[in-house]
Amino acid sequence: MSVIAPNFKLSEFIKSILDNLFWILLIMALIGFPAIQLVLFFIEMPVINGELLTPFLALTWLIDPSRSLPIIKAFMTTDLFRVAAFPGFGFAALIAAGTIFVERKMLAKLQLRVGPFYCGKIEGILQLMGDGLKLISKEIIIPAKADKPLFWAAPVLFVATAAAFVALIPVAPGWVVADVDVGLLAVFAVIGFFPIITILSAWSANSKFPFIGGIRALYQMVSFEIPLILSLLGVVILTGTLNLSEIAASQSSFPWIIFLPIGAIVFFITMLAELERIPFDLPEAESEIVAGWLTEFSGMMYGLVQLGTYLKLYAFAGLFVVLFLGGWSGPMIWPPFPEEIITEGIELGPVTAQFPGLPVFSQEMLNGTVWFVLKTVGVIFFILLPRGVFPRIRVDMLLDLGWKKLIGLAFVNIFIALGLLYAGILGPGGIF
Amino acid sequence: MADAAFLALSVITIGSAIAALELRSLVYGSIALMGTLGGIAGFFLLLDSPFVAMFQLAVYVGSIAVLILFTVMLVKRELIFKKIEDKRRKFVGIALMLVMMVALGAVILDSGIKQITTDEPAVDFREIGEDFLTYYWPALILMGLILSGAVTGALVLARRVDEENGQRVN
Q1: Which chain A residues touch B55 with a CB distance below 8 Å?
Q2: What are the boundaries of each domain within chain B?
Q3: What 3-state DSSP class applies to A47?
Q4: Where exactly are the structural domains of chain A?
Q5: Taking CB atoms and an 8 Å limit, are A181 and B50 in contact across chains?
């Protein structure tokens, strides 16, 4: 390994850090705080402890750590936080990033390789960051005869559609970005956009390999959408609702996979096909058509498509958990928040600090999130596993599987659900 | 707010419909068609029927527009369309459209749509489903038979005999 910085001097390093700190503080004081103040004047402020928050109060409270908690809590109830951070994009992107690293490392271990190793000393833990920096800094090359507007729009649209899918997945009771009454139908509508974006990006690159890959992706996604929709109808029949939060809440005593295992298996297989994962990765078959419909993407455009793919993977795994594995339900394993901190505050030697506004999250929410994440990670593991085990299948076998076998099995699943419903065992007015 | 959304949706829908007809590039034309169909889904959302809106998106944008795109990309344009640039045809077409619009608008305005009170809560899709399964069941069964007949017919038409070479047989 070569030395990265041969002329490294600790004193210069510390000096540069201090320099940066000085300038950041100066710019913050002269421009940052006035700008924040100006913005705060124009947005609607919440009422905290019976007192309307003004921009002056907000800045004062943010500096004081013992009084900033109510402001943070008020911020967490806003839509912005939900969309950008917790059940929405940030959370999903975090899980997606973890998925990418685990996939590379696990695949390497399955195939008796080492995988990412040098970056970050410990088992290549910083490889992902390095890859991200590389993708951002690389030049974006557009093929000469490409259709430029579509080619530029495709990666952005892909990420946007994947984020719309993520927004529909409930993570904990009450913690979902878009709690719509027809949630499952919205999922079907969003899934329908992926083949369009794929084929448009493939066509716009004006190159052979992307177009072949795009046509394959279209074949695959369109034909597997039908068993996907059919396999989920059993759950809808038994719960009598399309709202994903209600479907998750209906499984507090047992998950639907116990009664509808065929539906779960069909949904899992169609999920693999929709995600273009091995053994169904014909659209990206790297040994035949370079990288399929991703061939002409370079730099951060490829990074965006990759981010969208893994967001989609998380959303599908979350959908599987919500529909078949009981969502957030599970035994209470999260310890309750200690009472004495709320009543007496935290004692640090002679100092006692009171934090009004604790606890930030309720116990149910934290417990639900833990169970949801555990189950989702388990499902993601099972999605990743075939990549180390199975070869790619032929396109005629794929279509045969989708149109003949999976649709039939999905109907069997629907009849099982109907039988359970009309026998009075499950569903509205059933025994359980 | 609703009025602004309605106006924006109308502009998107009608604008992309005109674009779908007028654009020379067939792929962009089908994208514009997608915009029209999505705009109609937006109208359904404004009318408090998200169920229909989601089906509009899933069926029209998700499937039919994809089929059109697929066809446009796989078929050579010169084979299916001959360019007929004729000013008179265009004007006659626009005149026909105007006549149709005026006639349909007169019929709709005359049908008592003005007396509908808009404060009532939206009809739940569960009620529609119940009505379909109880009062309107013959219509449902008829629709089911027609659709399954169409699917069977399509399957019969699309059927072809595989030549028996070693690669195709599993």
Answers
A1: 185, 189
A2: 1-81, 130-159
A3: strand
A4: 89-422
A5: yes
Q: Give tens-digit pLDDT for B96-108.
A: 989 999 999 998 8
Pairing of strands A346-348, A51-52: unpaired
Beta-carbon neighbour count of residue A72 at 10 Å? 13
Write the pLDDT tens digit of every residue in A186-238. 898 899 889 889 988 888 888 888 888 888 888 888 888 889 989 988 888 88
Residue predicted with more confidence, A314 or A402:
A314
Is any Cβ of chain B less than 8 angstroms from the Cβ of A395? no
Q: Rounded to a whole number, what is the distance in Å from the CA of A18 to chain B's nearest CA? A: 51
- For B1-81, which CATH class? mainly alpha
Q: Per-residue pLDDT tens for A8-22? A: 788 888 999 999 999
Print burial letters for A203-221: b (CB count within 10 Å at least 16), e (below 16): bbbebebbbbbbbbbbbbb
Amino acid at B11: V
Q: Measured at the alpha carbon of residue A187, what is the angle toward residues A102 and B141, in degrees to the nearest 5? A: 140
Size of interface A-B (CB pairs under 8 A): 61
Confidence (pLDDT) at A299: 83
Report which of A66, A44, A67 is spatially closest to residue A57, judged by C-alpha positions.
A67
